Amino acid sequence: MDIQTIILAAGKGSRMKSQLPKVLHQIAGKPLVQHVINSCQTLGATHSHLVIGHGGDLVRETVKGGRIELTFAEQIEQLGTGHAVKMALPGLKSNSPTLILYGDVPLTHHQTLRELVELHNNNPSGIALMTCHFKDATGYGRIVRDDDLKVVGIVEHKDASEQQKLINEINTGILCCNSDQLTKWISQLSNNNAQGEYYLTDIIAMAVEDGEKVETVQPDNLYEIEGINTLRQLADLERVWQRELANQLMDGGVTFRDPNRFDLRGSLTCEENVVIDVNCVIEGHVNLLQGAKIGANVCLKDCTIGPNTVIKPNSLIEDTVIEDECSVGPFARLRPGTVMKSDSHVGNFVEVKKSIIGKGSKAGHLSYIGDCEVGKNVNIGAGTITCNYDGANKHKTIIEDDAFIGSDSQLVAPVRIGKGATVGAGTTVTSDVSAESLTISRVKQKQIESWERPQKKK
Ligand code: UD1
Ligand code: CA
């Protein structure tokens, strides 16, 4: 869609009581203003002009334009929304449709924006305005219409008469007009009003004065036009949005034990029959394949969970690929570079890093497996540790198919355990073990019959 956008993001957000610029606070793990930029991208906008001020450098460093060409205009003093738009004017393509958005209004659907832009394109010299009906419109600009219900202006709450305060159609702030018209109207703004600010909203009456049409669209959902001013509002909108994301996943066939206790901070794709228990947090890109079951309090980041695999509660899994019919946890930690082949099992208090667990292999309890290649049908006993780090470098452990590692063993890398070998419980393996052998390193057990326990002095 041939459209350029202006995103106002210079405000301080004093009511957030925070050092962080308001537009960098997050919803669903993403800065507010990044949501807006991403909607522009989905809309197919070519350019976004960000008006920055408070914390501008940090905003500049943090946001990503992706396919959109992003430019920044600085507004040193915040003299009002009209003044903010003025800062962006020099960067605009002339005589082109221009959409004005707000960095602290993060969740407008791209479809709603498209509707607004299309309305504008049918009437390219006028203004398309997004409005909304609120029961309590306190604080918002009110849409003033004439007897024929034509929009004739916007009056800010602080400038409104008692009569005008009864109007419950409000200005969302989002609008679309031609850049040349915008430039002309902005140049005529004055700050002769209750707040001594240059109001963008005054361009509506100017357009009407010029004989141009002002038309309106409404979004389907209230959250689409909700702006953030306080941390409470941020938290409320986060919940609304998370429920919306859960609803979309349920529409696609995902079962949630409680969709109100779910947090998606990235992207999640699910095949059929996926079940997600309460309090799961999903980050990065996660794929849940057919019939995967995710237990309570599980955190998943950038991973694929295979068909019919079960992740038991309180597991943390990052940058990992798990194949089908596996089980993980409870309380397992799979760190980056882990691959679990079909039908393998990692149990409670097991940490795995940069390792392959072969088909049908198991590490049931209390182990560290790092920089390790585990073959098929290997049994790793409780408390087994790969000693992969010598204080300077990391080394590899290779455990071949059908090996059995007894409990409480240490495998000092680099080391190889041959196919079908058995390592006795409590062994410290420091050199390679050959196939089908038994390796054991234990102090011989002795028994002292006459032993008496020390007694406490009376
Ligand atoms: C504005 C509208 C009001 C509308 C409301 C919707 C005006 C005059 N009023 O009021 O009709 O109902 O939004 O939420 O436009 N900003 C700058 N520089 C400035 C001033 C503001 O970048 O000098 C940015 C802010 O960071 C914010 C946005 O513009 O993202 C809106 O500013 P704000 O002061 O919140 O406007 P409102 O008074 O809420
Ligand atoms: Ca506001």
Q: Evaluate the radius of gyration.
A: 31 Å
- Overall shape: elongated
* Ligand identities: uridine-diphosphate-N-acetylglucosamine, calcium ion
List unreliable stretches of 5+ residues.
Answer: none
Helix content: 10-25%
Output the number of helix runs: 8
Estimate what percentage of residues fall within beta strands. 25-35%
N-to-C span: 91 Å
The largest pleated sheet is described as: 12 strands, parallel
| Total DSSP E strands | 37
CATH architecture descriptor of the largest domain: Alpha-Beta Complex
Please identify which CATH superfamily of the largest domain we are dealing with: Spore Coat Polysaccharide Biosynthesis Protein SpsA, Chain A
Q: Which topology of the largest domain does CATH recognise?
A: Spore Coat Polysaccharide Biosynthesis Protein SpsA, Chain A
Alpha-beta classification: alpha/beta
Average residue pLDDT? 97
When the domains are counted, the total is 2
CATH class type of the largest domain? Alpha Beta
Would you give an account of this structure?
- The structure is a single chain.
- With 458 residues, the protein is an alpha/beta fold.
- It has eight helices and 37 strands.
- The strands form six sheets. Strands 13, 15, 17, 19, 21, 22, 24, 25, 27, 28, 31 and 34 form a twelve-stranded parallel beta sheet that branches.
- The longest helix is centred in the middle third of the chain and has 21 residues.
- The protein is elongated, with a radius of gyration of 31 Å.
- Bound molecules: uridine-diphosphate-N-acetylglucosamine and calcium ion.
- Calcium ion binds next to loops.
- The site of calcium ion (CA) has 2 residues, from loops.
